[in-house]
Amino acid sequence: MAKLAEFHNLFPALREFVQTGKPVWGTCAGLIFLANKAVGQKGGQELVGGLDCTVHRNYFGSQIQSFEAEFVVPELASKEGGPETFRGVFIRAPAVLDVGPEVEVLADYPIPSNKESDVPEKKVIVAVRQGKLLATVFHPELTADTRWHSYFLKMASDLGEETSNSVIAVGEATSKFQTTNKI
């Protein structure tokens, strides 16, 4: 993604889009793109930035170490209803290691410690929000649970008039299309 964005000179437009306050949701590699800082990269991957966090690329391992797991999602459950947990699909997933003061942690994932060790269970951050930016290290689009999508749409529509032209409700688009066809 970064190589293509650089080759086609997309970074200035992507950065401007994020900086102008449009709603953006980055999943997996999209989260890495949005992060202000990334570690564990090959070379110096250029980032769009805007999300005050440090992310570790491929934190959970290679492609063959991809997995699905249940984790607690209190913000999602309180806003969208449904179960207190979400089954995430982690595909060569990154992890958020650190967040700035403006970043709200929406979910974390426990990393099991060695049972023979006295080291307490460690957690890594897997979902965050900073203003108009939403980021998940997992792939909600690969599940039947649409609560993250609903959360993002509500988040985007709650942002006020300055972004209203960027988000069009399906019913709105249909009625505009039908009106256009009648002319």
Task: Describe the fold and architecture.
This protein is an alpha/beta fold and 183 residues long. It has one domain (2-182): 3-Layer(aba) Sandwich (Rossmann fold). 28% of the residues lie in helices and 29% in strands. The protein contains six helices and nine strands; from the N terminus they run ααβαβββαβββββαα. A four-stranded mixed β-sheet has the order 1-9-8-7. The radius of gyration is 18 Å and the shape is globular.
Instruction: Using the CA coordinates, give the radius of gyration.
Output: 18 Å
Shape: globular
* Low-confidence runs of at least 5 consecutive residues: 161-183
Supply the number of structural domains.
1
Q: Average pLDDT value?
A: 84
The level of helicity is: 25-40%
Q: What is the CATH top level name?
A: Alpha Beta
- Return the string of H and E elements: HHEHEEEHEEEEEHH
What name is given to the CATH topology? Rossmann fold
Q: What is the strand arrangement across the widest sheet? A: 1-9-8-7
What is the strand and helix layout of this fold?
Layout: H1 2-7, H2 11-19, E1 24-27, H3 29-34, E2 35-39, E3 51-56, E4 67-72, H4 74-80, E5 85-90, E6 95-99, E7 104-111, E8 122-130, E9 133-136, H5 147-157, H6 170-182
Parallel strand pairs: 1-9, 2-3
Antiparallel strand pairs: 3-6, 4-5, 7-8, 8-9
Pfam families: SNO (PF01174)
Keywords: Glutamine amidotransferase
Protein name: Pyridoxal 5'-phosphate synthase subunit PDX2
Write a brief caption for the model.
With 183 residues, the chain is α/β, with parallel strands linked by helices. It has 6 helices and 9 strands.
